[in-house]
Amino acid sequence: MTSSGNFRPHRVAVLALDGLLPFELGIPHRIFGRPADDRGRHLYEVVTCSVRPPGPVETDADFAVQVAHGPEVLATADTVVVPASYELGPVYEEGRLTDELAAALALVRPGTRLASICTGVYVLAAAGLLDGRPATTHWADADRFQRMFPKIKVDADVLFIDDGDVLTSAGVAAGIDLCLHMVRRDFGTAVATDVARRTVVPPHRDGGQAQYIHRPVPDPQQATTRAARAWALGRLHEPIQLRDMAEQEAMSVRTFTRRFREEAGVSPGQWLTQQRVERARHLLESTGLSMDQVARDSGFGTAQSMRQHLQQALGVTPTTYRRTFRAAGDGSG
User: CB neighbours (10 Å) of residue 179?
Assistant: First the structure.
């Protein structure tokens, strides 16, 4: 961002393409339009642009949207978001950009962060920006996407993938998860959680797309693992064994593990690690506790163990994370 004496909001350009889904077009504006610093200054500036001069862009609904900016906005963006469209033409059918779209993307500055929502990933793929990299899209389109772009490492099980300067998300509402993640990455957990609260969505959804793929509806009387998860969240600072969680639901370990994965999309062990990482992030941002104390309170036991888990999950050390996001929270980062 900038120093407090030279404040400039992070500019997000949303690329509106014909056939776009209005819901997905609105996600970046809703999520990035909320964060503000302690002086009330918006941390992001969100602008919508088209590949053509200002004018109407068709949607998949019975109305068009009037876009006030042309492709030149892409050259000024810090982040470019490409929502899904149902009229991508050769991009979707042949995996190649139109001349108009290629010219627009050529304006994006090197180092600009790129993100896609749902099938907007086809645009990034057709531009060659995902070759050799991991990416995701809507689970129903993942197989086709993989066949069309064999160089991309498609993961259809996750809600979004953060590969540094390029991020991709699954279908529709996963765009909310992705945008909240970017806010969390830019300004920390507290800011992202506040945005989520104001938007009335969870700040972080557990699991991946597997939990949304159609399956026979379970018996409503069938036991779930919800109580075990609530029990575990209340004692993350303690050692928690798989059998302890299974006992909360009066299930065998085998049955509990299967049911947990069906509901959460990840194993109990992976879920516990995710929750402990989130607890550690919160403590690093909001308290001055020592690294050893943060590690104990979040359930990692030792500072070295916490360091390894945060490095794997976030790509930074706990010390770097605290320095970055406590500064951002003070309005100086």
Answer: 28
Q: Which of 39, 40, 47, 62 is nearest to 16 (CA)?
A: 47
Enter the tokens of residue 253.
Answer: 């370990």
C-alpha–C-alpha distance, residues 64 and 60, integer Å: 9
- CA 66-67-69 angle, to 5 degrees, is 150
Torsional sign, CA 254, 255, 260, 261: positive
- Which residue, 154, 150, 99, is CA-closest to 121? 154
153, β-bridge pairs: 134
Give pLDDT tens digits for 277-305.
Answer: 989 988 998 889 999 999 999 999 999 99
Tell which phi-psi region holds residue 132, choosing left (phi > 0), alpha (psi between -120 and 50) or beta. left
Per-residue pLDDT reduced to its tens digit, 71-123: 999 999 999 999 999 889 999 999 999 999 999 999 999 999 999 999 999 99
Please work out, in degrees rounded to the nearest 5, the angle formed at the alpha carbon of residue 182 by the alpha carbons of 164 and 293.
90
How far lies 262's CA from each of 112, 154, 209, 216, in Å?
Answer: 37, 21, 11, 12
In the chain, which ranges are continuous DSSP H helix?
22-32, 90-93, 99-105, 121-126, 142-148, 174-187, 189-199, 226-233, 242-248, 253-264, 268-286, 291-297, 303-314, 318-329
